[in-house]
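Hey, can you fold this?
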Amino acid sequence: MPQFPNGFLWGAATAAHQVEGNNINSDLWVLEHVEPTLFAEPSLDACDHYRRYPKDIRMLAQLGFNTYRFSIEWARIEPERGHFSTAALDHYRRVLAACHENGITPMVTFYHFSSPRWFAAMGGWEKPAAGDLFVRYCGRAAKHLGDLMAFATTFNEPNLPMLLRWLPMSEIPIVKVKRMAKQAARAVGADQFGCFFLGDAKKLQEHMIAAHHRALEAMKSGPGKYPVGVSISLQDEQPVGPDSKRDRKCAEVYDPWLQAAGKSDFLGVQAYTRCRVGKKGDLAPEHGSELTQMGYEYWPEALEACLRYANARVRVPIYVTENGVSTEDDERRIEYIRRALDGVGRCLADGIDVRGYIHWSLMDNFEWIMGYRTKFGLVAVDRATQERTIKPSARYLGEIARHNRIANVAVGAA
């Protein structure tokens, strides 16, 4: 394969709630601890990244990467409505400084699924005032951090609630979801609990798209000059049968946010698998298909298909902000990366403006309702000791990053 373009970003990603630990002011912390809950286990200390970030960032750099995508936590920065924590903002300044000290380009996500518990208690993203509150938070954080940021995204996968609407109803435990939300509302002394995952998808989309554009401007009004975009979730949607609703699904789930990204500085594409769409909606993977720990079909070629779909609809630079596979078999992870990057190479050869590949995730972490059972990481984390163990896949992708090309990198390199 030819060399990737000069300046290509190679990195790995994390999200605050999934790695930092003890995010006690978060709405998700509440949901993890109510009874009944859909969460397999609580996040607790997670990967203790809030304290261990200097070594983790140094490890990333030593592996050969040049970029770290991470999120700042709204629930830490504004633990109570209107009260901002300078200590939390200073913490994230230190994280950004550690990136620069190690030659790492920081890409900051301002919202990666988790909200302050007070935000959920007031109704969350379904409320018209939500956008004002998010924009205020973005402006305050950007004022404190903007001079050290290289890239920023407002939201991580804000189209996910719309995507979940296409799942077969049999896969959604509606009764359990309602019970969990009711218990969470009681826990915070509210009439409702407006978590990102639980709200009305159409209202969320309307309010979050408007908030994205306003937050982008709020970020740019502060110090520093950096591009601001949005990262959206895409699947390789494949029609099954003449009456497939694939096109309707794409128009509903992806296109509104692609239009929003087209008015931004860049688009983040996040892709993991394909989905077969029939006349009634999403279908299960074909019998005998290789499945990941998440239940997704093992389909590295999804990334290329999603990049091509996005490129046909937006004319802004594209970064792969998430791509990876949940598996205990690291050889399958290496194979997944190789095939996914082959697809990126074909896109580049066809003139598609892809400027970076950021793997999900840097380390095995808290994977939402699945807990710690699913392993996406390039680095293993011992839950008892917090010891990090670099996997062969980390060295494989790190060598590609170091040389900016796939050639001469052996599968299974240690």
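Oh, and this one too while you're at it.
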Amino acid sequence: MQEFIASLEAELLQLDTVEFWLAFTVVSVLSLWSFRHMYHRYHSARVIENVPTAKIRSAAQGYVELIGTTRMMEGPVIVSPLTSTVCVWFRYKIEEKVTRRIGNKRSTHWNVVKQQTSEELFMLEDETGRCVIDPDDADVITEKRSWYKHDIVPSRRYTEELILQNFPLYAIGLFKTVANVEHQKFRQDVSHLLREWKNNDPNQLVDRYDSDKDGKVSPQEWEQARTDAQRQVKLKNGHREKMEELSVLKSSPHKDQTFILSTEPEAILINRYKRRALLSLIGFLASGSLAVWALNVRLGM
């Protein structure tokens, strides 16, 4: 062990100034990143422990914890593009295996080819009522399934996460009851129409909105498509107002109020966050100690 440390010190002293400070900065940033994640994960565990479970019908306006069963909203069925599984929420990622040679060494990593996260609204139901779940910006924890295809070049890895319909769900976030829910249905219709345009004839979508003729629809050009979709939905529905009381659970603007959706029970979820916090703490201590030790060796302290 002493020989290993001595050789590491020798290599550290041989680095030129730019290389040393670059490595020191990377390790220091990693340490700060680990500390931030440690705080966030431990704080989330404490929040879950301290916030009592409410019933949808009697839940107070504000930050609440709900436990219920997922339900599909009226309208188009949500289907995961990767496996065509009907669900209320999905997230998937497709990666390609990339191998590079540097001298006699070979390194392999997975490069993301495509990924997507569902933004569709769905319902949460308990024995007292229902509320809409807006999953944007949620920390979603559910079973992750991965598989590989080695019969193509390069090899691909597929990862999919799903929240199925009629499935138990833990949720904690900002609970708000609104009198006019037309904007929720309106958003859903616009999203469905944009998905239809994209899936049915992507070339026509590019021809229509690719104003700079670069062969793809940029985020700015996509906003024009969204505006046209909103106009078409308004014309189709006559922009009718539907007045009914409906509650929505969504992301809170306060950073300390974590928005979590989980198919795991509350007790397991708390242990998961605490375990991740412990790993982040270990990473913080290890990288921080390494940075301080390297600085001492370099400066001869």
